[in-house]
Amino acid sequence: MQDAGEKGTLASALEQEHREIDRAIEDYLASSDDDESRIEALEQTMTALRRHIYLEEEFLFPPLRDAGFVAPVFVMLREHGELWDTMGTIERELADDPAEVPGRCKWLLAQLAKHNAKEEPILYPHADGVLGAPASAELVTFLERGRIPDGWVCAGASA
Ligand SMILES: [Fe+2]
Ligand SMILES: [Fe+2]
Hints:
- By secondary structure, the protein is mostly helical.
- Helices cover 77% and strands 0% of the residues.
- One fe (ii) ion binds at residues 14, 18, 52, 56, 119.
């Protein structure tokens, strides 16, 4: 799903994943079939977004915070909690109230737009610098095939 981006930096790989996740949610909204593959694709997209948040919170934000980006990291953690809660709601609605899912996906896209518009210019330009090349390369590989640990929940999630 993911290649390392033109320059192979973690920042470019994370930005590319933002685009892929947006596109996958837009594809879900653009399609009107209610077949299982459309729902599975949406579930896979949410798995990718949760893993993206995991990588940022566990590996990228701690060194950024140590480098002085305390306030922006605080805001990003709060917004991750909001994204996480919306994904939980989407999963419940897929099971119990599917008519609500498209509207909720539009809300998720709006939350992502607001989040990514800050994360990309404020934090990502410093990502590879604070991590150092070996750690960045390891995380690019994680984006290609890593898995989030079972039961991991982001810091700002309400549930
Ligand atoms: Fe991100
Ligand atoms: Fe983020």
